[in-house]
Design a protein that fits this description.
Layout lengths: L1 H25 L3 E8 L2 E3 L2 E4 L5 E7 L5 E5 L4 E5 L4 E6 L5 E7 L7 E6 L1
Parallel strand pairs: 1-4, 3-9
Antiparallel strand pairs: 1-2, 4-7, 5-6, 5-8, 8-9
Amino acid sequence: MARRVGSLLIGMLAVLALPAGVARAADVPREIALTIEKNRFQPEEIRVKAGASFILVITNKDRAAEEFESRELRIEKVIPAGKTVRLRMPALKPGTYPFVGEYHEATAKGRLVAE
């Protein structure tokens, strides 16, 4: 009898713990890939949910460094050649946020659209 009660209690605790685990999984920011190749960003437009933070994972496939810059987002980050950098982005208000590769502004252009 004591074993059954103990098993029942363990089962109930496991069920009660489940929503907390699910809630924590929902809090994990979404990762969005951005690639620099041939002095261009791919994709050129990234759509994100307004009000939700995310992680921008930038991979530079070129042989030279590039600087990811957005005046509107107040970000400047050098991405070394052949490397990947993860930028934790804040929750954005609805709108469009342009960005450039400062070393190749004529070709390396893109925008984040928060909707």
